[in-house]
Design a protein that fits this description.
CATH superfamily of the largest domain in chain A: SPOUT methyltransferase, trefoil knot domain
CATH architecture of the largest domain in chain A: 3-Layer(aba) Sandwich
Strand order of the largest sheet of chain A: 3-2-1-6-4-7-5
Radius of gyration of chain A: 19 Å
CATH class of the largest domain in chain A: Alpha Beta
Largest sheet of chain A: 7 strands, parallel
Shape of chain A: globular
Number of helices of chain A: 10
Oligomer: homodimer
Largest interface: A-B, 64 and 62 residues
Number of strands of chain A: 7
Chain lengths: 241, 241
């Protein structure tokens, strides 16, 4: 039995209540119970979810709703964005198998993040993630729906709960996402004040690049505390140049 | 690339055309195309199958209908009966993973046989099989539908063929150590100038902690260039506080 926490399933902007129900059913079949919803289109609770869950009511009853993906994964240390499409984002790409191995070896909380039924995850959603999980699929017929993607990832994860090997616990585990987010906000404010974002129309792309670089650091709570201090120190004293 | 033939998918007494369509969709996602139907309840073709297949029409168009399971698997050398329920039948019980390995190693034709939506396979159906395939599932919530069982077996089979490798994304590799070193020197100089190293006798330990945090970032050449710019920007302009 893996001692690692089961992954949280996060559905970003899901459209149909029926699909939320099917995702809950897929989860519970493989022992996953924690569902988080980011701004579901038709609000929550949704009367169409229950019948589609085929009895996975406990998952729906305990589902939590968040206003943003960042909020939904605030307590997670490793975030996996599931997408079948190629992105212009420089992140490691894992199979469901490889991701499951990482989740079982992690000392923190992991999140599997899924996009909306038709459109999938936005670039900004993917930017939050540490890695991308892609289900290898027939390139001539790639038609995996939301619940199917959930079931494949849940199934791969469930294989690891039979494993007897204890997780490798890193000495200083990565900080929860909320701490990194706060640091990114701090840095962005200070950079903005110092005139870093020039020209302004490049700001969004620059921020995304910066976020990617900071997301892959694996910084712990203590690392991030130190980095706050560094930013503050660098801005504090005008230095002779 | 496995040289073995892909397995045939056999649905025994399927009830709803919609579920036949969903099974076809599940198959084609993972490169399986040969579907056989044993006495489908509502006959064949079934107008409900097409819409549910989400474009997997080729699988449906080429589906064959048989009067008995024995006829449907007449050309197959190894027959796998999928069931989640315990049977009083003395057959080897395999996971989808183990069955897929056997299929890839087989010189003959393999069949994955699935029962009707509600009732599953009859004892006489299972008696024809060489082995039973069971998806390990949450004992307190075992609610896998037909298409989900098909997709899990098709997915496991697909790992053995070429499409099972994730797309190679050119990641931004970590920079050579000298670049990181240069960055650490830059940061150290600027922090020193801003009075960060207080008290002085802690400087060495602080530098070691800082170096550890920066060494684990995995930053690329481009990341490090950006970080040089960030340090310079933060120190450039005295900001109102």
């Amino acid at each position: 039995m893996s001692a690692a926490l089961p992954p949280v399933i996060v559905l970003v902007r899901p459209q149909l209540g029926e699909n939320i129900g099917k995702a809950a059913r897929a989860m519970l079949n493989f022992g996953l119970t924690e569902l988080r919803l980011v701004t579901p289109r038709d609000g929550w609770p949704n009367p169409d979810a229950g019948p589609a869950s085929a009895g996975a009511d406990i998952v729906l009853a305990e589902a939590e709703v968040f206003g943003s993906l960042a909020d939904a994964v605030a307590d997670c240390t490793t975030i996996y964005a599931t997408t079948v499409r190629k992105r212009g984002v420089m992140k490691p790409v894992l199979t469901p198998e490889a991701a499951a191995r990482e989740v079982h070896a992690s000392a923190g909380r992991s999140a599997y993040v899924f996009g909306a039924e038709r459109s999938g995850l936005e670039t900004d959603d993917v930017a939050l993630a540490h890695a991308i999980v892609t289900v290898p699929i027939n390139p001539e017929f790639a038609s995996l729906n939301l619940a199917q993607a959930v079931i494949l990832l849940a199934y791969e994860w469930s294989k690891g709960i039979a494993l007897a090997s204890p997780p490798e616990v890193p000495l200083d585990p990565p900080a929860p996402h909320a701490e990194l987010e706060e640091f990114i906000q701090h840095l962005t404010r200070d950079l903005d004040a110092s005139g870093y974002f020039v020209p302004p129309e490049r700001t969004e792309a620059t921020l995304r690049t910066l976020r990617t670089a900071l997301t892959k650091t694996g910084w712990s709570h203590n690392d991030i505390r130190m980095m706050h201090g560094i930013i503050t120190a660098l801005g504090r004293t005008p230095r002779p140049r």
